[in-house]
Amino acid sequence: MKRRRNRDSGSITVMTPRGIGMGASGVVVAILGIGLASPVLVWVGVSMAATVLIAALWLITSVAMFRKRFPDAWRTVAPHPLTAGGNGTVNVSIRTAKHRQRLGISNALASALDVREQAAAELTGGLSTKATVGRSAEELRLDYQVHPTHRGRWPLGPALVKISEPLGMIWADVAAGSVEHVPVWPRIVDLTAATGALMGQADRVVMGARTPSADDSSLRDYRDGDDLRRVHWKSTARRGTMVVRADERAGVRPATVLLDLPVNPVAAEWSISAAASVAVSVLASGHPVRLVGANAPPEAGEVHDAHNRDSARSRILNATLDLEVPSNRDTALEHTRAAARAAVNEAAYGEVVIAVCDPLAGDILASLVPLGEAGRAWAIVRCGDGPRQDERAEQTAATLSRSGWKVVTASVRDDLSSVWSELVAGGST
Question: Do the Cβ atoms of 427 and 407 come closer than 8 Å?
Fold first, then answer.
């Protein structure tokens, strides 16, 4: 939940057909009266035009009074951030200034004010919002539901209060508050149960491959950002270089989730959702995790410790908010190439690698192939964009499978839970 205070940001004034007709008619009648030397017509024309002018002055005064009495707008969005495919609640409160709370405004005026808010289609699902409006002498309140459909940061607000003069010739939309960009996390699928089985497989592979020895079998070189409490001082003194205890004990093996973004927007959102779902499920199963790839910000490549899961989960999902669909496949492959190097480096320290990728080839595929030898590599290769990509996806899956990876191919139409269960159950090996 987030509570934000906003200041007024302007207004839009509109003259109604009645006002336009009254003003234009007044001018015509006045000119006609002058031409016919008829004081009565001139007086009628001037009176009609003056009525429009008085209405405008009335409106200006009303807007000024509204802004003076209601200078602030408070908006609460819950939950914050929102999640694509979920629901949220927005509460907007436009309150009387503290020094004017005794005065307020008349209930008649409050009931005449029309309050509404602007929201991006990505927050409402393209549908109009049905709001509950509460009015009193001290507060105008607007409550409504949002149904976000797309990951990202989407504009919400400002709230608009419609004020008009009694004759209905001119009205103004007064902005109360400012635009707030509400973050929306990608759609998340709970994969925790199967993920725990996957991480257990990785531990059994390692424990079966070697018998752990004292000290050195669970040590690795110190890297920037490592907790100094994990430094193994005895081995550090013996080796002459700083080493730390690696997270290779059963139940705490870390994982690297590698994301390769497609250039197709729909496919890209599916891939982001899949990678994020895998990452948070690894975290929920009690294992540290990092998310690398795409044009993710630097913090996305940090290891997110499972000890503070809520905070770590938020950091992982926040890292996906600003991921952009690559403009072309070459750009996407540059990001994937860097992510593959990171995955290879971390795999050397015993990390599990889980890739969500499009068909790969060349040096990127060649760099990932050796990871299968350790038995700690899984991949979801996306297909479904036509026979050619399906063939390339099968070739990528076959190459990885021959080297020891467990692989499944999937399209955006497939259910992620089913795809993940198939991968954990064995995939193609």
Answer: yes
3-class SS of residue 327: coil
Classify residue 175 by its DSSP letter.
Answer: E
Compute CA distances 36 → 24, 39, 223, whole Å: 18, 9, 95
**Cα–Cα distance measured from residue 92 to residue 75, given in angstroms and rounded to the nearest whole number:** 4
Q: Kindly give, in sequence order, each residue whose CB lies less than 8 Å from that of residue 180, ignoring residues fewer than 6 positions away.
A: 4, 6, 75, 77, 155, 156, 157
Query: What residue type is 100 in one-letter code?
Result: R
> pLDDT for 387-415, tens place per residue?
888 899 999 999 999 999 999 999 999 99
Q: What is the pLDDT of residues 112-142, one digit of tens each?
A: 567 788 889 999 887 777 778 887 767 778 8
Q: Which of 199, 293, 211 is closest to 247 using CA atoms?
A: 199
The single-letter code of the amino acid at 369 is V
Helix, strand, coil percent values for the chain (each to nearest 5): 45, 25, 30
CA gyration radius, the chain = 31
Q: Token pair for residue 189?
A: 């699928």
Domains of the chain by residue range: 2-15+69-185, 192-425
CATH classification number, 192-425, choose in 1.10.1760, 3.30.70, 3.40.50, 1.10.3230: 3.40.50
